[in-house]
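tmp note - Helix-turn-helix domain protein
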Amino acid sequence: MADISEPMMVVPLAVAEEMRLMREQIEALTEAVRPILQDAEWLSVNDAADKFKVNRNTINRWVQEDRFMAKGSGSSRRVKEKDRT
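out:
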C-alpha cells in the first residue's frame, strides 16, 4: 500500500472545477496587487512630512538635495527615501 503524506479528499467534478477557477482568480489578483505593494514605500509629500515630522517644504528640499527620490508632480508627487547603504 502506498504511503500518503497528505490527506486526500474526494470532491465532485463541479466543485473541483470551481476551485480551479478560484485558484486562477487568486493568482491573477495576486499579480495585479504586486505592483501596488511594491509601490507602497512611495509616500505623498504630505505623508512623508508627517512621517518625518517636518514641513512639506523640507521634503521637497530633501528631494533637491538628493536625499529622497521623487516621481510625479503637484498633488500626485510621490517620494521615497534613498537607501543609505
